[in-house]
Design brief:
The chain has helices spanning about 35-45, 70, 100, 105-110, 145-160, 215-265, 275-305, 315-320, 330-370; strands at about 10-15, 20-25, 50-60, 85-95, 115-125, 130-135, 165-170, 175-180, 195-200, 205-210. The protein is an alpha+beta fold and about 375 residues long.
Length: about 375
């Protein structure tokens, strides 16, 4: 893929996503990164159209070689992980011809234009793997999101029979096309990078104009891609945090529903258990604490997006964070208070009845024998 010869003009269509290639079996995740990364690269090299596969692994400290499971999340299995200070990156190019495109299904056979030469970078930034796929081809159909979609589906199809799988966190592609263009010479704009967002049905469009007076277009594309990866990490961290809090909430509600279903099946006077209700209350308290802690962790990323000077993805990060789910913790706690109150009332009444019966029996026996 060649940029314009003067290096000062050009355009790039960029797509973002959150997915990576992981061992299909859990045992494969126990291997150290130094073994898994070359194995992933070898699997990629066998994918039709893939070339120039390269990997980077710079350990947090000299000699460190953590297990892959400690560094990489596994979305399909609900596992969270973070690379911390490890630098891990996988890059390659994908040449997509008509035959490979047609193999993806009828929807793709009808494309008149598509990104035929796609550069791909998969980086573990902080919390999640971020994929950037970009092309210098100019076409309404050769968009960044098209490149991501083709890349993802091509990898899923070609790796389906291997020991590796494509592990995805949605939405992938990211819900906007990123278009980078060199600013015309003499254009009045003091910013090195200027961003404008157009919200529209389907995928939004983020237009980025870059100043190439003091740097080549390729260098400015690298600069924008680096920033895009950092912000995509923030966006997908919000998505991952929301998914985790929803999982915690669903688990707490499942326990509550199981308790209520069990109560319906019980018979006899001493229905219910104060200990079981107390345990449920503690479950909801612990779940609420975990949810609040997760949201607190996300606030820093959101504030960074809110205060960003450039903010490629700021609007999307803020919009997603504003739709955080509202969990009715208080309502469930009130229901448990009600159940505990009813149980206590039943227990008091039962104790009074039993005491009266025993008292009556003792009185009858006393009269009978004395």
């Amino acid at each position: 893929m060649a940029a314009p010869s003067d290096g000062r003009s050009g355009s790039a269509q960029v797509g973002l996503a959150c997915f990576h290639i992981v061992p299909r079996e859990a045992a494969g995740h126990d291997a150290p990164v130094s073994q898994v990364l070359p194995a992933v690269a070898a699997a990629l090299a066998d994918v039709p159209g893939v070339s120039d596969v390269g990997t980077v692994f710079t350990a947090e400290r000299e000699g460190a070689d953590p297990a892959f499971r400690d560094l990489a999340p596994w979305f399909a299995k609900g596992r969270a992980a973070a690379p911390d200070s490890h630098d891990v990156e996988l890059s390659f190019r994908l040449a997509m011809d008509r035959d490979n495109l047609a193999a993806l299904g009828p929807l793709y056979r009808g494309l008149g234009r598509w990104p035929r030469d796609i550069r791909v970078d998969l980086s573990y930034e902080r919390a999640v793997p971020v994929v950037t796929a970009w092309s210098l081809e100019r076409s309404d159909e050769a968009t960044g999101t098209t490149a991501i979609d083709i890349l993802r589906r091509h990898l899923e199809r070609c790796l389906s029979g291997s020991s590796f799988m494509v592990d995805v966190l949605e939405p992938s592609p990211f819900p906007a096309d990123l278009r980078i263009a060199a600013r015309p010479e003499g254009a009045a704009d003091e910013q090195l990078v200027a961003v404008s967002l157009r919200v529209q049905p389907g995928f939004d469009v983020i237009d980025v104009s870059v100043d190439t007076q003091d740097a080549s277009f390729e260098a400015m594309v690298d600069h924008v891609l680096y920033q895009a990866r950092l912000e995509a990490d923030d966006y997908y961290s919000v998505m991952l945090g929301m998914a985790e809090t929803e999982r915690l909430w669903d688990t707490a509600v499942e326990r509550f529903d199981a308790f209520v279903a069990g109560e319906r099946r019980r018979t006899g006077w001493l229905r219910g258990s104060s200990g079981a209700i107390r345990d449920l209350m503690l479950d909801f308290v612990e779940t609420k604490a975990a949810v609040l802690a997760a949201w607190h962790d996300l606030e820093g990323r959101v504030e960074k997006a809110r205060n960003s000077d450039v903010g490629l993805l700021s609007a999307h990060i803020l919009a997603r964070y504003e739709r955080l789910p509202s969990f009715p913790f208080d309502e469930y706690m009130r229901m448990l208070d009600f159940l505990e109150g009813r149980r206590s009332q039943r227990s008091d009444a039962q104790i009074a009845i039993i005491s009266a019966v025993i008292g009556g029996l003792i009185g009858s026996l006393y009269v009978l024998f004395y």
